[in-house]
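Appendix B, record 7
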Amino acid sequence: MSINKIYKLAVITGAGHRLGRYLALYMAKKGYAILLHYNSSEIQAQETAEKIRGIGTPVLPFKADLREPSEIQQMWKYIDSLPYVLHILINSAAIMVQGDIRSMTTDEFDDQIAVNLRAPMICSQEAAKRMKTGGIIINISDSGAGKNWLGYPIYTISKAALEVLTRILAKSLAPEIRVNAIAPGLVFQNESVNIATWENLIGKVPLKRSAFPNEITSMVEYLIHNKYITGQVIEIDGGNSL
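Structure tokens (predicted):
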């Protein structure tokens, strides 16, 4: 007689491409059912979902614009319909827009704050309601949160605030739920950065290279298994913050 496996659920925002994709694949390999959130990256999200199906774990792609609280709520209502126990939330989705603080529009400000800060707050609130037997929330910040990046002012502000949110959530949700953040340095070249600039940035890193995705996902595993860590922001930047 076959026995249906009861999967734990990992909800990962921005999981269609870039780092979110690697996080989703990693969690699937660890045996989690994946709620694969995406917005504009539908083709990449479907490709990621196919790879997860190949691993053999359930994957549920869900499209939602995180700038819209109503769409976030629809996503969580869908999560409630799934036959899995929510265990992990990874807030990975982000908008990174280049600009000058002297000329940034209110729409550009609102979009980045909505996706990079407000959406993680709402998702964390909703996850906490459903993590009845405990759980883990991991926010993806950026090593640039501690710098004054003039070229990406609102992105930097939003990530700095996300780290404060991480600490507040950790204190508020303890002891049942642990909340931490990972702040990667250079991993993937941003579309707004040309090759010459990218190589110049890498040259400033003490380890003289960008991070491999598995060097980020391995920290996720560490935070899952070390149950005495909460409220921390862990930088993985090759020494760039030195």
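Remarks on this record: The domain at 8-235 is CATH 3.40.50.720 (Rossmann fold). The chain has seven helices and seven strands.
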